[in-house]
Amino acid sequence: MPKEMTDLEKLRHSCAHVLAAAILRIWPEAQFAAGPPVEGGFYYDVELKHRLTPEDFPEIEKEMGAIVAANQQFEREEISRDRALELGQSGRLAALGARPVPSKFKIDILREISEGEVITLYRNGDFVDLCAGPHVASTGDIEAFKLTHLASAFYRGDERNPQLQRIYGTAFPTKQEMDAHFAMLEEAKKRDHRKLGKDLHLFHIDDAIGQGLILWCPAGAIIRQELQNFIGAELRQQGYQQVFTPHIAKLDLFRTSGHFPYYAESQFPPLVARENLLLLANENCSCAELANRIQEGEIDGFLLKPMNCPMHIRIFASQPRSYRQLPLRLAEFGTVYRWEQSGELSGMTRVRGFTQDDAHIFCSEQQLDEEIQKCLTLVNKMLMTFRMENYRVRLGLRDPASSKYVGTPENWDHAEEACRKAIQVLNVSYTEEQGEAAFYGPKIDFVVKDVLGRDWQLGTVQVDFNLPVRFGLSYKGADGKSKTPIMVHRAPMGSLERFVGLLIEHFAGNFPLWLAPEQVRVLPVSEKFAEFGQSIVDSYRLSGIRTLIDLSSEKIGAKIRLAQLEKVPYMLIVGGREQASGKVSVRSRKSGEEGTIPIDDFQRRIQFEIESRELC
Questions:
Q1: Is 285 one of the catalytic residues?
Q2: Residue ranges of the chain with pLDDT lower than 50?
């Protein structure tokens, strides 16, 4: 059953009909396929001999404005499927009255609908369209709209079908809301992590390496290392032990965990040993047969790991365990690999190889509540450090009607209730979403709203009664009997790549001092003061302050502008007066000119700022 449309979606859906009617006024031969509301607006797919360009937008918007001004009522009509097919054959669907050419895309849609089913049409003025609705009352309710961009799309997403022109637009209840929306989009462009990442030399994606695979440049690597240091210090305080695991493992490991073959479509293809490939070649084995034999387990192979948890499980199982060793907390900055479709890749936020700040806790049933609470507290502290206070918590539960979940209903009930109790102790509002659990257990996700109002799923905590059973894990209890541990999966940041991409946009590249790749830049006013400037650099570096010097022949104004473009938090200008007094002229990214300050005093000031992780 389709989800109910919001009022804004109804408005945008109605505006899509106005767009189609306007196009028909200009190009009566246009043939229309789908025109739904989507996130941020709407689109309509059209087959048209005329190649649309943005230069056509003013003419189309003028016709749309006339339709809106006419205040045409949206009238709903129910007819039989056969009657709808007659209208389509006569060219009356998605058209302004009858025309000699059948409405071919609408006919194709109708032929997939069962006979006897009631069909709904919507009419506004002379325009009639096959549509399930709903719509606003009249075109006059559409106060603010704008066409935004064009794209190409195969009919029904199938490259064997005709390629259509897709025209996008948006609509809002008021012009003020639309203006605010476009102002937000302009701000988003300025903050786009793909642009800033390139401008600030933070990361690089190279076709010679592969799309979706991140090369961390030196500046970006500093940010990543600082984040790892931050999380690492917190983990040491909580008694975590660091581990390292390979990037590849036998397929059987992931067969046991359930990641293969059930999630094979989201993973890189298995790697088969050379001797097996040669043997299969001699047997004239086809690629399809090879895939099937791997799937059935007849041929062994290896897999780029999609998750770290099976390897941490094997570390737990590598020696006998006692209840005295629990909880055992294993942490790893582990890189995993997922096969994302090319069209889904996006900078650092959607990649094929990413590093998780991952950990797995093996505990007893009595320890579970406290361990979940500690995990939630850690995620909360991390978000507060970055001033990401605007977040919500989502508890993903299993869907009892689905077969994708492993384990007994009793264990699932227990795990879900433990998650609820932990969230309630954290004292935050949360929602429960059925069907959003991992296949092995319920999960608690932190969904953060960034400065542009966009939602990002970051930290996650998952309770797992099932993988320890699948792998036959056990420990000796206080009564001497063998018991099965419970497993908690947790990743406060999730993917480091995604988190850094979000941080770039959250701070617009203006990283707080403790994260900034370059914290201080010394700017000599001329070559004469290079040696004095270098002495400051050497002193600050010994104190752990990331400091560089601009020894170019540019004038001081140009040096300042470059440092500002590169978003350096502090610039220290040094010349004859500063050298004579043992001071520096300080200019900050935030406040501009701050006057002259003794060299040692400024050093102590920024050391305190770095250590306290202030957000400047």
A1: no
A2: 1-2, 616
